[in-house]
Write a structure and sequence with these properties.
Radius of gyration of chain A: 23 Å
CATH topology of the largest domain in chain A: FAD/NAD(P)-binding domain
CATH class of the largest domain in chain A: Alpha Beta
Number of strands of chain A: 19
Number of helices of chain A: 16
CATH architecture of the largest domain in chain A: 3-Layer(bba) Sandwich
Strand order of the largest sheet of chain A: 6-5-14-15-16-13-17
Oligomer: homodimer
Chain lengths: 482, 482
């Protein structure tokens, strides 16, 4: 029993909260980390997961099988004290490797600060570890193959289907927290229940995605640079690849369903798939011996953003993670945002333990502005990754920002760094400051006002001053509006 | 038979479209105007409306009973050639009459150009006239008390409940167009059908609204200025009043459901309602002898924004008006946007008649960016009307803009004028230019850069230059993003 666990257990007991029953719907990354944390705090926690136990089955389902873990996710990992165990599962990615159509590559670091990088991690390994850690607490139980059908949020009960026995059953709890992802059963019950004003949106991109695969080299090593997130940006579509521990890469194709010469709807034959990859991703094609099989075996999935409010009903039920705010994957922040939810929820619990409605209200009041911001940023980044990573003015901006980060590590962070590596800054603040910086730098570059031959210190001051001016102009215009 | 009608009838016949059956769900303002227009074009049109015939019943239901008709709505009225008949139903409102807490009033014109004003019109009278005009065409039929339950958009059939016979029946058509408002049955069928990726959002404000009433004076005249939209803005809530032809005003209270000292949830007694109005709206209270009865008789309704896409399914079905894009009422544009839909749809029909899928696609491609923009503008205006109409810097901006519009009628239009009186400019363009102008003027005022003692011509040039700079900065930053 580690120190942190002891501390919070006694904390929970002091307040008489420990004997409350918390039902968590969904045992994915967010749900199992939440179970671990609430277990540490001494609650009696039951987690119901619709899928089989990830530790016992092969999850090679074409679903996103690796993810980019960065500082916000890591903040949550530190909270529960398992940082070292997670680190062993990670492949560091220190930057983007851009592949052009001729097979030339350009490496672009994620940060000018060397200790700032993101990590490729297997969803299955990560999830299994979290479930194992949570189950070490005897007050935490997992039940697999139990799909939630609906939630009665007035009575704080949930209806499940047991896939093993093919029967339905109802579970009662003091509090129900749904971490059941973009298709959340609780959220659906809020929407269909019409018992209160529920704001809700689902927004789909015109692009879908498909998982593909680069196997390890014959010697077991990596076929291309291991410590990078590879990007083949082609303006209207793109391919990316993330390294796995075993020498392979997980590849994802992002492509329109029905627009352009090649799209998911018309890539229906082996020849067309090979022609498409041969034309646009030749160096990738050479590394993908199973492309055609993978292409037709793996599903094409939509890319959507989900927002809603309120996240809670009274002190009875709460949505967390993707169930409350699913986003598109282009900032590598979907999982990180869901894990950071646990940190924010834990703070609200510290402040208001014993009053669930206050905890839920406070959590949403502080958190939603940030998850709304990362949803917008993720959509922006889709356009940036497809196109502008290959664009001159973007590269010039990137060069300046890398130099500023390297030489003024405590004074400058790019938008990407603010979002990814400044886990003490909320997403919304990162978005506002990051966008203002981008706007200031791009306008100065376009107007020829940034002389790159000047010394860096004066460039830093110029950028800071122009950024403040952009923020101030917006503030004056916004104050008018609200 | 007027000239325009003849022209389009023969046009329809020439193209062999005239014998197609079009089913319109919903006979409100949008549906009945659409029926009239399609009737003029020679289609066989059936309109099914869930309410009773508005010409035969008293519609004193607490629902919004008057509306502000302005140039975009009027553009649609002109298209069908009934401008003069509508004019007889209108009470012109040339500006806002602001009422402060002490009962002082300030008049603020909507435009510096005298011929630009908005019109208060009774929903029931307007709707009845449109139904009458549509029914003059023997190829147009209305069926009342028929509620649409769902639409099979693959088969192009709709299921209705007949309230008269209490039976259900299915109607078949070549094309189904749903103009059945914010609760659209077709939109619900799109959402629940899950046959295609349907982006959808419903967003509620924390405020609701309630209709109230100022009766005519004893001599039959108006108790306060007839030719104004009256506003009692109180930062966190507000009251507005629009004149009716008979000397009365329709009053609307916009108030939070559960925040602040007074809110809809806690205004539960006669005494509290009178205390609330006595404290904040004393001069209005004096004009409202039936306040308490009206307050407890009339419903409290939510304020929501609905967006979705796609609006159509193949060439079979289409959403129009509030069914596709319901907005909050604060720009006075909800009805105008729905009527303008008919003009835009008519253009798409001119260009692609005979190919419904192309007509629908083209219509949505051109129209949705504009209805998205007016949705945003309407929410912004809520904050402006509650608070900033009483704010010094806002008044200063308004004064400058009135002077510019008056002296440079062809060179300057405020955001409000662009949205309301420039019906040839799309909502999106009006929003972008109007916001840039606001930002430019407010920042110059805040920085003391606008000397009001300068001659107006130089102020105009300063504003135009600063506006272009704002637009250009945004363009450079946006190009990066998309």
């Amino acid at each position: 029993m580690d120190k942190q666990y002891k501390k919070v257990l006694s904390f929970g007991e002091d307040l008489g909260e420990a004997q409350q029953n918390i039902l968590i719907i969904g045992g994915g990354l967010c749900g199992s980390l939440l179970a671990l944390r609430l277990g540490q705090r001494g609650y009696r926690v039951s987690v119901y997961e619709m899928r089989p136990d990830i530790r016992k089955v092969n999850m090679d389902s074409g679903r996103s099988i690796n993810l980019a873990l960065s500082d916000r996710g890591n903040k949550a990992i530190k909270l529960v004290g398992i940082e070292d165990k997670i680190k062993a599962l990670c492949v560091p990615m220190t930057g983007r490797m851009l592949h052009d159509r001729d097979g030339n590559t350009t490496f672009s670091a994620y940060s000018g600060r060397e200790h700032e990088y993101i990590n490729s991690i297997s969803r299955a390994d990560f999830n299994a570890l979290l479930v194992n850690e949570a189950e070490k607490h005897k007050n935490v139980s997992f039940y697999f193959n139990r799909k939630c059908l609906s939630v009665d949020f007035e009575k704080t009960t949930a209806l499940f289907k047991d896939y093993d026995s093919n029967t339905e059953f109802v579970e009662d709890a003091d509090v129900i927290i749904a971490t059941d992802g973009a298709g959340s059963a609780l959220r659906k019950s809020y929407f269909l229940g019409r018992k209160f004003l529920f704001s809700y949106s689902q927004d789909y991109l015109t692009h879908g995605y498909k998982e593909l695969h680069i196997p390890p080299a014959e010697n077991g090593g990596y076929k291309t640079n291991k410590n990078a997130l590879h990007i083949w940006g082609r303006d209207h579509f793109m391919l990316i690849a993330l390294p796995n521990l075993n020498g392979s890469f997980t590849v994802t194709l992002f492509l329109s369903y029905d627009e352009g010469e090649y799209n998911f709807n018309n890539l229906t034959t082996k020849d067309r798939v090979i022609a498409f990859f041969g034309t646009y991703f030749e160096d990738a094609l050479e590394m993908m011996p199973n492309l055609v099989d993978d292409f037709f075996k793996n599903p094409t999935s939509p890319l959507g953003t989900i927002r809603c409010s309120p996240w809670h009903y009274k002190g009875n039920t709460l949505l967390m993670g993707d169930a409350a705010h699913a986003i598109v994957p282009f900032y590598g922040q979907g999982m990180n945002a869901s894990l950071e939810d646990i940190v924010e929820f834990d703070k609200a619990l510290d402040a208001h333990v014993g009053h669930w409605e206050t905890v839920f209200k406070r959590y949403e009041a502080l958190r939603r502005k940030d998850t709304d911001a990362i949803a917008d940023l993720a959509i922006d980044n889709f356009h940036e990754m497809k196109g502008h990573v290959n664009n001159d003015i973007f590269r010039e901006k990137r060069t300046i920002e890398m130099a500023l980060e390297k030489n003024f590590p405590n004074e400058y962070s790019s938008k990407y760094s603010l979002v990814t590596f400044n886990e003490h800054v909320g997403y919304r603040e990162a978005m506002l400051r990051g966008r203002a910086q981008d706007k200031a730098i791009l306008n100065m570059l376009a107007d020829g006002e940034l002389d790159l031959k000047n010394n860096l210190k004066s460039i830093l001051e110029q950028v800071q001053k122009a950024t403040e001016a952009v923020l101030e102009d917006d503030r004056i215009a916004q104050n008018m509006k609200h």
